[in-house]
Amino acid sequence: MDNLSNIQWNKVAPCLVLLILDVVLEFSECTTQAEVNKHLQLGMDFLVRGQLSDALTHYHAAVEGDPNNYLTYFKRGTVYYALGKAKFALQDFSKVLELKPDFTSARMHRAEVYFKLAEYSKAKEEFLQVTYEDPYNEEAVAYYNQCDSWVSEARLAQAYIRGGDHRAAADTLSRLLEVSPWSAALRQLRADCYIALNDLFSAVSDIRAEVRECLKLDPEHKLCFPLYKKLKKVDKLLLQCEELSEGGQFSRCVESGRQVLKTEDTVTLVVRCLHVARLSSCSGRRVFWRTLLMPTSDWRCWTMRAKDGLAPRDRQGIP
Questions:
Q1: Sign of the four-CA dihedral 194, 197, 202, 203
Q2: How far is 73 from 87, CA to CA, in rounded Å?
Q3: Are residues 88 and 21 in the same domain?
Q4: pLDDT tens digits, residue range 124-162?
Q5: Which residue range is the domain that position 252 belongs to?
């Protein structure tokens, strides 16, 4: 009898184990989905209030909880888009289309990202596909019709540069950047044009934008991050020099100048600043700033001028 009971129990036990596991997994799945829904709701609440970073945090959690939900990727992608993070927006919109190829809104957003990056050929293909899926999408049609003209504008800018007409090239690139503000390549070209025109104020603005975009995409970038840290330190010391000079504390001003040189002794701009400070005992404020604006071939100087605010009246500081 005991043997019979054991045999029956051995047959039933695996079924009971599977049943228990099924209940546990079902409960776990319900809990996870509830958490995902909560994160989605919180993300939407923050998005409505314009708190994009907080919304992004909750959308990250929602994606981790449900990595196969195309709508979650789309919502996170729209936040990246609003933040100007083109690389991550493209990744999310592409994932959406991988999971649901006929999701027209995601394709439209991806096309717009390409357009803002000045990748007009890719943008044109995407806008065309949108018109196939939604023939009455007037925005997609309008964008599609613009792509070829902006390609021509980009080629015209290159032709101006080859011909040495940097002013015309800069003007053309400015028009392009109005519609494609996320293009680092266009901004670099325009900075080069401004440099050729000796318009360093405008050049530093474009270079600074590139450095910040670099750090936005990769906060620990091996080239951008160390440079940014050094520029912050140099900026602080140069500001200290200016304040000490204005306060008549010339010896301390010179000492701050020496600290600048210890921080950065290879950039022509810093060496010039210190040299002038020593010659004038930091009292020639006008001479000091005029020296800051002297032309130089070192692009890092232009970046430093941008971080340094270019002139006392323009000082913005480094965030």
A1: positive
A2: 14
A3: yes
A4: 999 999 999 999 999 999 999 999 999 999 999 999 999
A5: 231-314
